[in-house]
Amino acid sequence: MFGVVPKQLWSRKIPADDINLCSWKMRCLLIEDGKRLILVDTGMGDKQSEKWLSYYYRHGEGDLIKSIRAKGFHENDVTDVILSHLHFDHAGGAVKWNSSKDKLQLTFPNAYYWTHSSHWDWAMNPNLREAATFLDENLKPIEDLGHLKFIDKQEGYFGSNFDFIYANGHTEKMIMPVVKFQGKKLIFIADTVPSHAHIHIPWVMGYDVRPLETMNEKVTLLEKIHAENWLMFFDHDPYYDICTLEKTEKGYKPDYAGGLEEYL
Ligand SMILES: [Zn+2]
Question: Which residues surround ligand 1, an ion (CB under 5 A)?
Answer without folding.
Answer: 89, 191
